[in-house]
Amino acid sequence: FNGPFLNHLAQLRPGKPAHFEMGEQSVTLQTQHGAAVEHKVKLPERWIKGFLQVQAVQRQAQPLFELDRLTAGQLLTQIPAKTQGVLYLVPKRHKPEILHRQPAGKDGFIAVTDGQRLRLLHAVLPDLQKLRVYRTEATGASLWVADAGVAQFTLGLSGAAAHGFSGDGDALRQLRAVELDEADLALARAAAYHLNQFTIADLAQHQDLPLPYASEIVDRLSQQGLLGFDRDRDRYFYRQLPFLLDAKKQPERLQGSRALLAKQAVEIEQCERRDGALSAKGWVRGESGYYQASLRVDADGYLREGHCTCPWIQKHDLRRGPCKHLLALRFVAEQAG
Fold first, then answer.
1. Distant-in-sequence, close-in-space partners of 59: CB < 8 Å, separation ≥ 6
2. For every residue of 243-259, which 3-state class applies, written as one string?
3. Can you list the domains of the chain with their CATH numbers?
4. Where residue 85 falls among pLDDT bands split at 50, 70, 90?
5. What gap in Å lies between CA 133 and CA 142, rounded to an integer?
6. How many CB atoms lie within 10 A of CB 186?
7. What is the pTM of this model?
């Protein structure tokens, strides 16, 4: 909301009259102090993609620590809005410890690259009962769930302040070689509407689908703005957002991988399936020569490890999802395995 609208919201008090008017192009708040109007703006497609990407990120988030109101307030106060470098929050017995050097290991901590984003939580501190914090190892993204008892506020932060969730590409980690059937998507959408809240296992059982296939369907519906994910309850919920992206428009990296497959640019050196997991190594012919690539996909279909000698992975590792070469290698390996 704009500044005047936020000021009017801040002046709302129990027992004082207030009138909201929801229109197609604006929202109006009328109080004893006057009226404030927030006009509808056209959202950039990149922003919308980032918003839809959050569902895939949340599903991979794991709980890190839980704080009461007093401890949460102390922690947030100690984190400056502007930091000279990265701060690392490491869980301790009573409250997280703030370090200026990265701890050993890949997980067990949260990297705070911009304290300004956490300032949003200060507004809910007076009503806070518990603050639960989740982290995704793959991208470094974090979820901050402020529980006020009667309501919850979830703040999702991308791993780097310089880019949002649209660049994380976490959903690309779960793409398989199999094509989704449009009839299955339509039936799953109807089932999600009637189930309202559900797990992937619930949807798979309801539609008699294999669990990995149901997982891909859920990701596709989420990317179309039809499903949200509540990490605190570990359940999806149906809600249709007031915008729809082109359901057939594929991410650029996925388009690139399809082009590599069409050129038969992938050569498999090693491919192994064990207990539902997939490991593969090979070479992919790219624009500037051959790239060596290897990957490991767990039994749930999630890309846990991936290495490629291309510039994208050399720069970002897997923090922003797999490159087109890893996607192409995976698709060929799944067909071969």
1. 229, 231
2. CCCCCCCCCHHHHHHHH
3. 3-39 (no CATH), 45-171 (3.10.150), 175-238 (1.10.10.10), 252-336 (3.10.450)
4. confident
5. 7
6. 10
7. 0.75
